[in-house]
Write a structure and sequence with these properties.
This protein is an all-alpha fold. It contains 18 helices and no strands. Pfam families: PGG.
Length: about 500
């Protein structure tokens, strides 16, 4: 029993290290090839085209970013290669390397996302503030608990509690990976782009365009994005050690951090995806609209659900009822995991597309537009509005789904029907995500309405392909079944002929 549990623990640790290493390697590789501050576009003043601008304007800051990012990238690759070595996993060597990896990400983000020392210090202090809050929250939570009652409770339901904790841990880890991935890239390459050369107003190359044109909006984006990033890194650090994440999850400290991270992610999107205050308000209104639609769907499903005969279930044996409950619980968990993964996918791509819209941004002001404004908003306004609002609906709907799934709020004992129909509502919400994401892609990936219509028609082509494949598969199965039936029917005839001879 002990050996089996040890193998399971090693396998979980190995999968965790591999997941974190893959995350870090992905974002650090991209950041290393596309460094913050952009690249020079010409060969003047002692620099060459293609060289990092930040290396010329602020060499110390660039080197701090470069080496922190490189350490995280190299450590991730080494961990991926050595993750199969059982002795390293058993002694938590690779997990310690991943902690160092995460601190490298913090240093690289603090150095590359801003241009002054004070802001870098504030960004790094956010991670410490999150850890301090979690410790204080856990301490106050454990003050009201009786250790004797806790031991008795753990003796009775230890396995069940740990199973539920592991499920919540996986969901929190998925959110942390989502937030860390998209906020790290968004912080290093802010919306609106960066100045590619000095101008006559005293603005320096490599600085964010949004910082000069809309300083308040940029600060809202920067701090919301930074809080979400540091929260995600702190969550990952806490979720590595069972002695840390178990009391933190039980006290709902990590759920509070997750809710704050999602809210900050929404605030960063609202501030960075548009330069108009009214449009930012509309984005928050979309959250209420999605919640209203979800509540309406849930009400419709609950009112139209079929009535089941409770007496028939009461007559069944208790063992079969327990088996059915176990199967239903597994299906519900699988559905929740499926919805969570889709929500993370949609939120990731929609967040990045909203901050870096198709068509790019203007590099200078003039003719009714400001530097940093989306080019498509000026040249093709109707198409841009279709893209922007479709993308925003997709992002906000996915955030709502993630927020509903993360705290494990669906009731398990007295609300099975509620949980069932709630998951169905979230399934429809994810479908809305994917449809609006398709509309945003059709509007943003082309510049002609005819081409956008062709993109939509591709759905019919793909569905037609599925229908043809399904038809051929069913026809093949029926033909195979008919052939087997013919062979079975011919066996008695053959045996009769043999006996007669």
């Amino acid at each position: 029993m002990y050996e089996c549990s040890t193998k399971e623990l090693l396998e979980k640790a190995r999968s965790l290290v591999l997941l974190l290493a893959t995350l870090a390697a992905t974002i650090t590789y991209t950041a290393g090839l596309d460094p913050p501050g952009g690249l020079w576009q010409d060969n003047v003043d002692g620099h060459m085209a293609g060289d990092p601008i930040l290396l010329t304007t602020n060499a110390r800051r660039y080197k701090a970013f470069f080496y922190c990012n490189s350490v995280a990238f190299v450590a991730s690759l080494v961990a991926i290669v050595l993750v199969q070595k059982e002795i390293l996993v058993k002694h938590h060597v690779l997990e310690a390397a991943m902690i160092l990896d995460l601190f490298g990400l913090i240093g690289a983000y603090a150095a590359g996302s801003c241009r002054d020392a004070n802001t870098s210090f504030y960004a790094m202090a956010l991670a410490g503030a999150v850890l301090v809050y979690v410790v204080i929250h856990v301490v106050f939570f454990t003050l009201d608990q009786d250790p004797k009652d806790q031991k008795d409770d753990e003796a009775d339901q230890l396995l069940e509690k740990r199973r539920l904790l592991e499920k919540r841990r996986k969901r929190l880890l998925l959110f942390a990976i989502l937030a860390a991935t998209i906020t790290y890239q968004a912080g290093l390459t802010p919306p609106g782009g960066v100045l590619l050369k000095d101008d006559n107003l005293g603005h320096h190359a490599g600085d964010p365009v949004l910082l000069y044109n809309y300083p308040l909006r940029y600060k809202v984006f920067f701090y919301c994005n930074s809080v979400s990033f540091m929260l995600s890194i702190a969550l990952i650090i806490l979720l590595v050690n069972p002695n840390l994440y178990r009391p933190a999850i039980r006290s709902n400290a990590l759920s509070v951090c997750t809710a704050v991270g999602l809210f900050c992610l929404t605030g960063a999107y609202a501030a960075g995806s548009t330069q108009h205050f009214k449009t930012s308000i509309y984005i928050f209104v979309l959250v209420g609209a999605v919640l209203f639609v979800a509540a309406g769907l849930l009400l419709v499903f609950l009112l139209t659900k079929p009535n089941k005969n409770e007496n028939s279930t009461a007559a069944a044996p208790s063992i079969s009822c327990e088996q059915e409950d176990g199967e239903e619980e597994k299906k519900k968990h699988a559905r929740s995991k499926y919805l969570m993964l889709l929500g993370i996918l949609v939120a990731s791509v929609a967040y990045q597309a909203g901050l870096d819209p198709p068509g790019g941004a203007w590099q200078s002001s003039g003719n009714g537009y400001e530097a940093g404004d989306p080019v498509m908003h000026f040249n093709r306004r109707p198409r841009y509005l279709v893209f922007f609002y479709s993308n925003s609906i997709s992002f906000m709907a996915s955030i709502v789904v993630i927020m509903m799934l993360l705290p494990h709020w669906l009731p398990n004992e007295n609300g099975k029907n509620w949980a069932k129909w709630s998951l169905r509502v979230m399934n429809w919400t994810i479908l809305l995500d994917l449809v609006t994401l398709l509309v945003a892609y059709a509007a943003g990936s082309s510049r002609g309405w005819k081409t956008s219509v062709y993109v939509g028609m591709l759905i019919l082509a793909v569905l037609g392909y599925f229908a043809i494949h399904m038809t051929l598969s069913i026809w093949s199965d029926r033909r195979r079944a008919a052939k087997k039936k013919l062979e079975r029917d011919s066996l008695p005839v053959r045996s009769a002929v043999v006996h007669s001879s």
